């Protein structure tokens, strides 16, 4: 009983919070997750480690709803994620009850980030070992947003971002290839980005799409395969085009 | 009449043989109660006696031009008029008004508190709070103090993104959305005039006149209402105070005195 009020996250002499930085390491070891914002759609994609034969894959959904108009994907400790997601879901409903309005994406992101920060400044607890990608539509203006939070409790809005394993390569790819897209184009961009670091195929990635009208929709494996095949074909065509013209001259 | 404690006794004596020891344990402690045949009714009356009556007239209604809010300005303590110049329309922020009925201190304090909460909401969320949200915040607070003696019967009127909004909120924790409300001891009289003259398509001027008349008529018949009839208008740009007329003067404005023949004769005689 006596020692549980002692802080675990304390400053180092040179101003680092090592526990938070170690938490970021845990995130870096987690599954790759990517989020892309389009003009009328937001897409989340997560790397799926091959499920064991006997495991029911539907019970390990990696992209979840926080409310009808907000979804979340994360990279890092999945058990920590469950706790954070439950608290966020309660907050979404509590907000609806106290002001009769759905939460905005920014509000719930601020809430989650606030929770993550609280656990870096409390006694007897460790930081949450996950970074989240939060997408959704503003209930009043209908504008789509993508936000990211991390174990330190900071958050910011993005046009496209990645977290988890190999997130740097994915982010580089997105920086090179991002442009304002809508509908199917956005889905393709997200899958292309994810396939940079994941083995191709619908089996290895989980993709979910959110629109203002239809809410969150998980893409079927078959759908993903189709899009992945399209991407492969485009890649091959681009390769051929590169090699083609020099030969003819 | 001794309080009937049979319900409080434990079940044991029911099937065990009643013994001296058993009776002592099972008898519940009794306490003196008022000499009345109807104890529940007596309790209800006692509660009603301490509940302060809301001696005032306030009203608000939504029409095509926004929300019209009006109130009297009399404060009474029983039969004593303690003030004729109370501000019963409280400015929560530039686009929301609250009305006061019930305990003046309760209304003033909680409306200011609501103003603070609205401002904090604006700062945190970078957008104004809706009338729905503001009224819900107040209603939740009042509900948490339910039964502790707060006396608040207020209307929250404002203009937000969805247009004009009007809610009635009271200290019992009730909250109602509506187009027309009147609160206070003068409200039956105000409703009579308001309901009779109301049309959604009134102009701002017509609506203001209707509100003014309704307050005047309530002050005429209700002893706990009087003073000055204030009328405010809430439009898309926020609220503006339209008028504040003494109800005594309003009376002669609506019903000017025409001297009868006897009075005329007397005036002539006096002049001669």
Automatic annotation (TrEMBL), chain A:
Transmembrane segments: none annotated. Keywords: Cytoplasm, Nucleus, Proteasome. One of its GO terms (cellular component) is proteasome core complex, alpha-subunit complex. GO terms for biological process: ubiquitin-dependent protein catabolic process. It is found in: Cytoplasm; Nucleus. Residues 4-26 form the Proteasome alpha-type subunits domain. SMART domains: Proteasome_A_N. Coiled coil: none annotated. Belongs to the peptidase T1A family. The proteasome is a multicatalytic proteinase complex which is characterized by its ability to cleave peptides with Arg, Phe, Tyr, Leu, and Glu adjacent to the leaving group at neutral or slightly basic pH. The 20S proteasome core is composed of 28 subunits that are arranged in four stacked rings, resulting in a barrel-shaped structure. The two end rings are each formed by seven alpha subunits, and the two central rings are each formed by seven beta subunits. This is Proteasome subunit alpha type. It comes from Corchorus olitorius. The lineage of its organism: Eukaryota, Viridiplantae, Streptophyta, Embryophyta, Tracheophyta.
Automatic annotation (TrEMBL), chain B:
It holds the Pfam family Proteasome. It is found in: Cytoplasm; Nucleus. The keyword RNA-binding does not apply. GO terms for molecular function: threonine-type endopeptidase activity. SUPFAM superfamilies: N-terminal nucleophile aminohydrolases (Ntn hydrolases) (SSF56235). Keywords: Cytoplasm, Hydrolase, Nucleus, Protease, Proteasome, Threonine protease, Zymogen. One of its GO terms (biological process) is proteolysis involved in protein catabolic process. It catalyses: Cleavage of peptide bonds with very broad specificity. GO terms for cellular component: cytoplasm; nucleus; proteasome core complex. The keyword Chaperone does not apply. Its main location: cytoplasm. The active site is at 56 (nucleophile). The proteasome is a multicatalytic proteinase complex which is characterized by its ability to cleave peptides with Arg, Phe, Tyr, Leu, and Glu adjacent to the leaving group at neutral or slightly basic pH. The proteasome has an ATP-dependent proteolytic activity. Belongs to the peptidase T1B family. Component of the proteasome complex. This is Proteasome subunit beta. It comes from Corchorus olitorius.
């Amino acid at each position: 009983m006596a020692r549980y009020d002692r802080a675990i996250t304390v400053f180092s002499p040179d101003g680092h919070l090592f526990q938070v930085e170690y938490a970021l390491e845990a995130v870096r070891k987690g599954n790759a997750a990517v989020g892309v914002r389009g003009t009328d759609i937001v897409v989340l994609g997560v790397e799926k480690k091959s499920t064991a034969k006997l495991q029911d894959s539907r019970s390990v959904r990696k992209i979840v709803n926080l409310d009808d108009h907000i979804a979340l994907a994360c990279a890092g400790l999945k058990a920590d994620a469950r706790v954070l997601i439950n608290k966020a879901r309660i907050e979404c409903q509590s907000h609806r009850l106290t002001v009769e309005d759905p939460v905005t994406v920014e509000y719930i992101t601020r809430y989650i980030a606030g929770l993550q920060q609280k656990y870096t400044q409390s006694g007897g607890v460790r930081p949450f070992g996950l970074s989240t990608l939060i997408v959704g539509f503003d209930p009043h203006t209908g504008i789509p947003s993508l936000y990211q939070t991390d174990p330190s409790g900071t958050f910011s809005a993005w046009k496209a971002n990645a977290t988890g394993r190999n997130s740097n390569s994915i982010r580089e790819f997105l920086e090179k290839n991002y442009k304002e897209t809508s509908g199917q184009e956005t889905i393709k961009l997200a899958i292309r980005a994810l396939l940079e670091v994941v083995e191709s195929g619908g089996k290895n990635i989980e993709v979910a799409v959110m629109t203002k009208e239809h809410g969150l929709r998980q893409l079927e494996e078959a759908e993903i395969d189709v899009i992945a095949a399209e991407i492969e074909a485009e890649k091959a065509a681009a390769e051929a085009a590169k090699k083609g013209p020099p030969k003819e001259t | 009449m001794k309080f009937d404690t049979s319900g409080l006794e434990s079940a044991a004596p029911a099937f065990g043989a009643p013994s001296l020891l058993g009776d002592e344990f099972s008898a519940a402690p009794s306490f003196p109660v008022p000499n009345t045949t109807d104890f529940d009714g007596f309790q209800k009356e006692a509660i009603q006696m301490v509940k302060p009556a809301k001696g005032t007239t306030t009203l608000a209604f939504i029409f095509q031009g926004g929300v019209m809010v009006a109130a009297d300005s009399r404060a009474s303590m029983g039969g004593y008029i303690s003030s004729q110049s109370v501000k019963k329309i409280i400015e929560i922020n530039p686009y929301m008004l609250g009305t006061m009925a019930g305990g003046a201190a309760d209304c003033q304090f909680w409306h200011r508190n609501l103003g603070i909460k609205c401002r904090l909401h604006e700062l945190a969320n970078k957008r104004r709070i809706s009338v729905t949200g503001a009224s819900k915040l107040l209603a939740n607070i009042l509900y948490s103090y339910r039964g502790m003696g707060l006396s608040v019967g207020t209307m929250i009127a404002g203009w937000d993104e969805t247009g004009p909004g009007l809610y009635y909120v009271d200290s019992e924790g009730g909250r109602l959305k509506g187009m027309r409300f009147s609160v206070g001891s003068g409200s039956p009289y105000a409703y009579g005039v308001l309901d009779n003259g109301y049309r959604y398509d009134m102009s701002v001027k017509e609506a203001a006149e209707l509100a003014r008349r309704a307050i005047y008529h309530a002050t005429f018949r209700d002893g706990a209402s009087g003073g000055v009839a204030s009328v405010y208008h809430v439009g898309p740009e926020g609220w503006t105070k339209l008028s504040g007329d003494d109800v005594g003067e309003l009376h002669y404005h609506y019903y000017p005195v025409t001297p009868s023949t006897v009075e005329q004769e007397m005036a002539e005689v006096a002049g001669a």
